[in-house]
User: Which sequence fits this backbone?
């Protein structure tokens, strides 16, 4: 069946044809609109990458679990009785029924399949099977089902952030992320206790577009003053008209006002790129730089870290950090956005807010407000982006031009998989992402083709 499908497919598992979709400063429209490319991403790109699963604070007690998806693969993470965290494929080894269908919960001392009541310890090992005598003398003990829930072998927990790689071989966690983990480190260090906590469900809503459009947009600094002029721009005008003699800028205006910053602001702010498609805006300055101080917070940080280190931590105000393939982290406001691919033209977005443990409540309030104002379907500016994504998804069906241009501040051949600080309006981070896309899409294709043959 696989051979028949490949024979009818446009790309099959031709690594050269797929790599050719990405030029130095252009990408072919098929990377956004071709259902076959999307399925190949699910089969190759996501299993070869390190993908965010969840946060350890969501698994506070033994028996706590969360569910997630890596590509097409449903996974399940749980806290065992000894405090350890395990990640499994979310399917019963008997008939394949999903063990957990809820986003999160507490299963108690064991998981129980809702179909035939096979049960498993929270470390995934098989606990009990009804009518077990029926398996005596059948060779069941030598089967994979006897081992319990299939374990995801490559799991790393960094500062309580859980990442997994489904592929048995590939780039190590340390080599995959490298220096880019400094954004997560900074976000965690902003807690006087060096800890984050998830206290609420995320904002979730569907986008009618390809997932990569959202990832690109996180480091696109040439759109805010254009796409958000009618929303954030109007809100700023209203505030200026109504503020009267007030010298205090409301938190809401502090959050959406900077979206109207001019090109020059973003140019000078800079972008840092890292290997494997990671990068961030806001190197020297960002839209998060000028929020009002929260009383008592700096004193807490100085007490915890010392004056010099406290100022270093709080002085890092990166805007958006992209962790390839599909999450964005805002360390300064403790938000993570997960862009979950559903179909070639459908993406579920989850926007998570983290509480800085031990920090003043006002910081958590600000983070929650930012999430509602910017990332919700009812937000001030989020619907502007959604409109652009949907228009792009429709426009890319046009046969007038099959290539998407990413040539801004392109200076000829660019060295790949490097760390560099560049002009803040450059499209090089987008080019960096697509280099990583081609790399992780094709890195195992030759091996899989040989195995199929």
Assistant:
């Amino acid at each position: 069946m696989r051979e028949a499908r490949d024979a009818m497919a446009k790309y099959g598992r031709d690594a050269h044809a797929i790599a050719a979709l990405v030029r130095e400063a252009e990408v072919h429209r098929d990377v956004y609109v071709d259902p076959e490319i999307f399925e190949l991403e699910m089969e190759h790109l996501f299993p070869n990458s390190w993908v965010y699963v969840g946060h350890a604070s969501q698994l506070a007690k033994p028996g706590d679990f969360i569910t997630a998806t890596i590509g097409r693969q449903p996974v399940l993470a749980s806290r065992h009785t000894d405090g350890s965290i395990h990640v499994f494929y979310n399917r019963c080894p008997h008939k394949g029924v999903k063990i957990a269908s809820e986003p999160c919960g507490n299963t108690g001392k064991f998981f129980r399949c809702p179909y035939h009541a096979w049960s498993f310890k929270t470390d995934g090992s098989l606990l009990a099977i009804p009518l077990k005598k029926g398996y005596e003398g059948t060779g069941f003990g030598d089967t994979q089902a006897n081992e319990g829930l299939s374990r995801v072998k490559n799991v790393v927990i960094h500062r309580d952030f859980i990442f997994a790689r489904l592929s048995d071989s590939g780039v190590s966690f340390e080599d995959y992320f490298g220096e880019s983990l400094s954004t997560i480190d900074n976000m965690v260090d902003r807690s006087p206790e060096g800890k984050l906590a998830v206290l609420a469900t995320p904002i979730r809503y569907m986008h009618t577009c390809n997932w990569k459009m959202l990832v690109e947009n996180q480091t696109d600094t040439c759109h805010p003053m254009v796409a958000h002029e009618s929303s954030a721009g109007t809100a700023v005008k209203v505030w200026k008209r109504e503020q009267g003699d007030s010298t205090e800028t409301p938190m809401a205006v502090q959050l959406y006002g900077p979206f109207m910053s001019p090109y020059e602001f973003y140019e000078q702010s800079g972008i840092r790129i890292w290997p494997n498609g990671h990068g961030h805006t806001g190197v020297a300055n960002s839209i998060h730089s000028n929020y009002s101080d929260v009383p008592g917070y700096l004193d807490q940080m100085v007490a915890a870290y010392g004056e010099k280190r406290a100022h270093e931590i709080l002085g890092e105000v990166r805007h958006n950090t992209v962790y390839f393939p599909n999450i964005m982290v805002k360390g300064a406001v403790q938000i993570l956005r997960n862009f979950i691919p559903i179909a070639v033209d459908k993406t579920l977005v989850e926007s998570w807010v983290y509480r800085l443990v031990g920090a003043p409540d006002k910081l958590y309030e600000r983070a929650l407000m930012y999430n509602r104002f910017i990332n919700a379907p009812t937000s001030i500016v989020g619907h502007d982006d959604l409109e652009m994504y949907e228009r792009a998804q429709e426009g890319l069906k046009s046969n007038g031009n099959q290539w998407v241009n990413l040539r801004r501040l392109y200076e000829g051949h660019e060295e790949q998989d490097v760390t560099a600080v560049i002009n803040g309006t450059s499209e090089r981070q987008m080019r960096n992402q697509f280099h990583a896309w081609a790399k992780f899409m094709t890195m195992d294709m030759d091996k899989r083709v040989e195995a199929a043959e």
Q: What stands out?
A: Residues 199-439 form a domain with the Naphthalene 1,2-dioxygenase Alpha Subunit; Chain A, domain 1 fold (CATH 3.90.380.10). The chain has a mean pLDDT of 93.
